[in-house]
Amino acid sequence: MNEDGEVQANRQSLVEQTLSITVDQFMDYIQHKKSDGPCESCGSIRWIYVQDNGCPAIMGTPNVRNYATSNWFFWMVCGSCSSTRLIAAGPIWEHYFVAKEISN
Question: Where are the domains of the chain?
Fold first, then answer.
């Protein structure tokens, strides 16, 4: 496989792995990292974790310096004031997939 093919295969694997993260994994991660603290806007601790078929909702924003890339975020909404908190998908992916590869 040439270098471009390897990069494409790795990117596809990263996408598939990131999209396979479950709501339970997401919630475990944010609790472990203490990312579920009180809302910055109103102080509520009631967060709504938006789901799609057992997976946390995910959004992508384009990188304005390079539209071929984007940043992915899982998100949660304050159940009191609707403020939204974004959690970068990359560190969650690393937590569940890179650590496993290193230990194998």
Answer: 3-103
